[in-house]
Give the backbone structure.
Amino acid sequence: QKEVEQNSGPLSVPEGAIASLNCTYSDRGSQSFFWYRQYSGKSPELIMSIYSNGDKEDGRFTAQLNKASQYVSLLIRDSQPSDSATYLCAVSNAGNNRKLIWGLGTSLAVNP
Amino acid sequence: NAGVTQTPKFRILKIGQSMTLQCTQDMNHNYMYWYRQDPGMGLKLIYYSVGAGITDKGEVPNGYNVSRSTTEDFPLRLELAAPSQTSVYFCASTGAAGSYEQYFGPGTRLTVT
């Protein structure tokens, strides 16, 4: 059973701090990794994609990938109350009709 | 470019009724997916399609049916609604060459009573 695991949280950080969200996956064949943000009552929104080992930065967001350890993380710098949401980690299901394997999400609360 | 659109936004069904959830995308994506998300739970794949005329079951297909007659549309049919089908339903699509990035519609919140 291919799995993606995330801490459910809630993760609570003060405004301006760095929020660190983590995700592990079981399928060594996975090649594509994604972070989605989901506000309460809304649909998931893609915020980061990463395909190779190392860091990828986009504004206040940095995704980190370590395929050897089967580990993906998302760092949010200078966290804002508007970052309060559930963050979903998704991993490609290798060769399988572009399906994604989804984690259950980590709830983040940024406190003013 | 509207992306992925879904109708209706909300619906209340009585047990045993049927309905169709509509999903349309204007990005010329070949791959489309239906998910359900229960409160506090993750996304569960119901059905997916890799192109017009081709559909396949996901993790939780029982009680649902789909069709894909065009690239743009991927309706989800609920037959004989049951309280267990109370959920939020999301449609998603992907299609750029080699891409796995899925883009979601706004969702349909369904209550079966």
